[in-house]
Design a protein that fits this description.
heterodimer, A: alpha/beta, Rossmann fold, 2 domains, 8-stranded mixed β-sheet, 4-stranded antiparallel β-sheet, 12 helices, 12 strands, 32% helix, B: mainly alpha, MetI-like fold, disordered C terminus, P-loop_NTPase (chain A), Oligopep_ABC_C (chain A), ATP binding (chain A), transport (chain A)
Chain lengths: 328, 317
């Protein structure tokens, strides 16, 4: 069953200097219980795209959306402010990268979790408190009764992230957006948090949209992957296929720049040349053409459409069947 | 908390020392003397000599200073040269109106400024925001005596709603007390309000752009909860600082307003004493005002700990 269906989503932000579009025509869907990864460099629009799904940025600036977002039979882009509040934190929750700066420093973690519970359920403070402690326990926080009264700065980074996860789960959301939840943590804690997320995925049958730039994590936990570049999904498909047979030059380069255990350490790690162009200066044609080693005149002139083959979809002229088809 | 308070109280001693030396020197080095004022133009130099001898003004400055300070340590600020009163008596007589005025002005300022500042931040970039900010800029630019005269003219003379000047002590009834204070308090408070509105707006804008506000919004909280519970309490620390500082200036700096409205406050006391070269009173009042200032700062710092748990923790060490 399809839980979320996004079609041709554009997010435009109007600023004093004009309009920028961090998300430019993204289409995808997420099935119930599916763990989907979104990878891409900084500035590829992953975060804005995911926050657009609950229109989180609406109040922070002059934002305009085009396209369609359908979540659980709701047309998200047509929802009123009050309906959006029911969606946020209730049907769709987000956990952010930096847990400490995502928690209000002036309130105990218990206060903030109880607040999340009582926003969506009419429970007494006492019951909500009990529930909050249960969720803290569920996320593996030792002695949750005392931790309930701790302030965010009194907890370690891993604990803070567990608190964020507990807070995101209190309403048993249908979709959890995890926006680089482990980037700020060290490797052992990272592994524990990933295990926790996967355990919750099976326990609550919760779909997860996992945003990261860590390809290793994607391979470990996601069943499908979307690769984003400059606000577009340039390639998507099942995780195994993308890792074994990447098609888009960008995906290939991303995978090649990943260190491997058996790689020659005297050789420098391959890197993608150049930097991501700025949003105010998006290249004509294919957005990756400025950095792509295979770019042709066609790439620099005309934006490629999506070509699909066996569940794998790629936005690159190299795979145009009329012009020679699937090169390899 | 207790050790911190004690430490802070101890730390005020050096400040008081420096202030006392400075005020003592300024007064004694400035030309003009109490003898000339009291004895008049026709006094002979022998009379002046005798007067100084009697009051001890011909002793070395260090000697005069130490005898003044040793008096203060025993709780004796000295006697006024002109009024038949001790310095403490004069201050306690004049401090009531000043404190009442300062409190009422600050109350008016806070009640006006904080909601308006939050509103301006919430509606950032809209016409309402621009209007509020232009208004507050105007408020900061207008000198308070001008505003006082305008208010006096409109509310006091033309409409006749409030008494134009004068002061009724609290003992004459709260209503009486407040009606006489309302005009001066409005003149002072409106200008404080302009400052605090701007401060509130900018502090709120700083907080509203922080990560935890976005995270809180992602929980589906109501806009009001976000603004008040999550944003305002965080924005309150810098606002509190400004409130504390302006309260200090209200206690000491309301001289002009007190003169315009003929309020027998500290301002009047200090001006009269300066004109008469009443050394003892000037020194005493300045020192007492310094104490009040330090006390307000201490209260503000302790309030930080109440608002922000991180400050509380730091203080324990």
């Amino acid at each position: 069953m399809t839980l979320l269906k996004v079609e041709q989503l554009h997010t435009h932000i109007h600023t004093n200097k004009g309009r920028v579009s961090p998300v430019r025509g993204v289409s995808f869907s997420i099935e119930k219980g599916e763990v989907t990864g979104v990878v891409g460099e900084s500035g590829s629009g992953k975060s804005v795209m995911s926050q657009s799904l609950i229109r989180l940025l609406d109040r922070e600036g002059n934002i305009e959306y085009n396209g369609q977002i359908h979540f659980d039979n709701k047309d998200v882009l047509a929802l009123s402010e009050a309906e959006l509040r029911k969606l946020r934190g209730n049907d769709i929750s987000i956990i952010f990268q930096d847990a400490l700066s995502s928690l209000n420093p002036l309130y105990t973690v218990g206060n903030q979790i109880v607040e999340a519970i009582r926003t969506h359920q009419s429970l007494s403070k006492k019951t909500a408190r009990k529930q909050a402690i249960e969720f803290l326990r569920l996320t593996g926080i030792p002695s949750p009764e005392t931790r309930f009264n701790s302030y965010p700065h009194e907890l370690s980074g891993g604990m803070q992230q567990r608190v964020m996860i507990a807070m995101a789960l209190v309403s048993k959301p249908k979709l959890l957006i995890a926006d680089e939840p482990t980037t700020a943590l060290d490797v052992t804690i990272q592994a524990q948090i990933l295990d926790l997320i996967i355990q919750l995925n099976t326990e609550f049958e919760m779909s997860i949209l996992f945003i990261t730039h860590d390809l290793g994590v994607v391979r470990e936990i996601c069943s499908s992957v979307k690769v984003m570049y400059l606000g577009q999904i340039v390639e998507e498909g099942p995780t195994e296929t993308i890792f074994n047979q990447p098609l888009h030059p960008y995906t290939k380069l991303l995978l090649a720049s990943m260190p491997k255990l058996n790689s020659d350490r005297t050789e420098p790690l391959p890197a993608i040349t150049g930097t991501v162009p700025s949003l105010s200066n998006i290249p004509k044609g294919c957005s990756f053409s400025t950095r792509c080693p295979y770019a042709t005149d066609l790439c620099r002139e005309q934006e490629p459409p999506m070509f699909s083959n066996d569940g794998q979809r790629v936005q690159c002229w190299l795979y145009d069947e009329e012009k020679g088809g699937w090169l390899d | 908390m207790l050790t911190y308070t004690l430490k802070r109280l101890l730390a005020t001693l050096p400040v008081l020392f420096v202030v006392s030396v400075a005020i003592f020197l300024i007064i004694h080095i400035t030309p003009g003397s109490p003898a000339a004022t009291i004895l008049g133009m026709e006094a002979t130099s022998a009379q002046i000599e005798a007067f100084n001898e009697e009051m001890g003004y011909n002793r070395p400055l260090i000697e005069q200073y130490t005898s003044w300070v040793s008096g203060i340590v025993q709780g004796d600020f000295g006697d006024s040269l002109f009024m038949n009163q001790t310095v403490l008596g004069a201050v306690s007589q004049h401090i009531g109106p000043t404190l009442s005025l300062a409190l009422l002005s600050q109350l008016i300022a806070i009640v006006l400024a904080i909601p308006l500042g939050i509103l301006a931040a919430h509606k950032r970039g809209t016409i309402l925001d621009t209007m509020l900010m232009s208004f507050s800029l105007f408020g900061m630019a207008v000198p308070n005596f001008l505003l006082a005269l305008i208010l006096m003219l409109i509310l006091g003379v033309n409409l006749g709603w409030l008494p134009v000047a004068g002061y009724a002590p609290l003992s004459s009834g709260l209503i009486n007390h407040l009606t006489t204070l309302l005009l001066p308090a409005l003149s002072l408070g409106a200008i404080q309000a302009a400052l605090i509105t701007r401060m509130t707006r900018s502090a709120m804008l700083d907080v509203l752009s922080l990560h935890y506000m976005r995270a809180a919004r992602s929980k589906g909280l109501k806009e009001r909860t976000l603004l008040i519970k999550h944003a305002f309490r965080n924005a309150f620390l810098p606002i509190l600082t400004v409130i504390g500082q302006t309260f200090g200036t209200l206690v000491t700096g309301a001289v002009v307003i007190e003169t315009i409205f003929n309020i027998p406050g500290l301002g009047q006391l200090i001006i009269n004493s300066i004109v008469r070269r009443d050394y003892v009173v000037i020194q005493g009042v300045v020192l007492i005002v310094t104490l009040i200032y330090l006390f307000i700062n201490l209260v503000i710092d302790l309030l930080y700990g109440v608002v922000d748990p991180r400050v509380r923790l730091d203080r324990k060490e």
